[in-house]
Amino acid sequence: MRLRRKHKSPPVLSHEFIIQNHVDVVSCLVMSLLMGVVFEATTKNAIIFVAVQYNVTYTIDDSNEQFHFYDYGPKDIATIFFYMLIAINLHAVIQENILDKINRRLHLSKTKHSKFNESGQLAFFSLFSFIWGSSILNAEEFAMDLTSLWTEYPHCRMLFQVKFFYICQIAYWLHALPELYFQKIQKEDIPRQLCYICLYIIHISGAYILNFQRLGLILMVPHYLVEFIFHASRLFYFSDENKQKGFTIWALLFVVVRLLTLTLSVLTFGFGLARAENSDFSIAGGNFNVLPVRIGCLATVCLTQAWMMWKFINFQLKKYREHVNNQIPKKKITNTKKKRTNQEPNRENCVNGAAKVEGEASPRIRKSKPV
């Protein structure tokens, strides 16, 4: 009997070791930070990572009601780091328990396998962000009154769910950067994924730091709805290539959301904040409502939307050309078949390789003489 060879574990701190065991290392860090909250000696340091910081409480003298708001500061970096570790763990749970099991049944190629994993992760996150953001908009009624986007600016004081939403958003897109290494993404796909990850980080962090949280929240909710439809349609397409109806819905909503984003951005930065302009630029006070900042924000949003539309148009043109090229060979094949059938004589009218002439008897078959 031959003994089975045991798989050698990769050397410690090698690339394969880090990729295989990064979830265990991250889980140990999360558990150590949570255990630090339990003990009194480490509570003050560990609570910075776990809990949301910069709580500000306001009381009304008449009713003695307390309102809790939150500001932002450098301690948020520690909180974002902790929830980035949580996002890495959740990424691994979704990958192992859901996406890998589906991949085994579909038997996809390497390129489709990586795209399926990418769309699967983003579909879960987009749906979660859309539901969470919609609940915040429903509770705060930002979307019902568009003047709230610029009135009483700067909006330095945030509610807990608004601040926690932004922290989770930044943490998720920051976790996507090391995941490019952990998931062994192909070199061809890294520039594309790195581009949209950086765009998410820049836009969400800019809205958070410049106190444009309300505008950013209203723009993110429809955007994540469109992203969910796209990635869900992509998942159905990988399971069955005939299921392409979701892409038409995505194409229509994609254009509508781009126009909505441009309209709200121009309305807020070009008209609303311009009229309520406060010339006292103050980082400590959170006031960034000055002309250079508004022009920079509006230009960033407009250039990003124009770039997305350019990519969308090129994608649609590419699909249309592929569809036309696939239809042309079919027509040529059918035409050549018809020509061949017209040129070739019917086998029923042929006897011994000679074609029958209409109205004439068939040639006699010669009998072989006996030897």
Widest β-sheet, arrangement of strands: 1-2
Low-pLDDT ranges: 1-6, 353-362, 367-371
Rg over CA atoms: 32 Å
- What is the tally of beta strands? 4
Mean pLDDT rating: 84
Which of globular, elongated, flat, extended, rod-shaped describes the shape?
globular
Number of helices: 9
Which bin fits the share of residues in helices? 55-70%
Give the structural class: mainly alpha
Q: Estimate what percentage of residues fall within beta strands.
A: under 5%
The H/E string reads: HHEEHHHHHHHEE
Distance between the termini: 71 Å
Q: What kind of sheet is the major sheet?
A: 2 strands, antiparallel
Can you characterise this structure?
With 371 residues, this protein is mainly alpha-helical. It has nine helices and four strands; from the N terminus they run H-H-E-E-H-H-H-H-H-H-H-E-E. It has helices at 15-38, 40-50, 76-106, 110-140, 160-182, 190-209, 213-239, 245-275, 291-343; strands at residues 55-59, 66-70, 350-351, 354-355. The chain has a two-stranded antiparallel sheet. Strands 3-4 form a two-stranded antiparallel ribbon. A hairpin with a 2-residue loop joins strand 3 (350-351) and strand 4. The chain is globular. 22% of the residues are buried. Residues 1-6, 353-362 and 367-371 have low confidence and may be disordered.
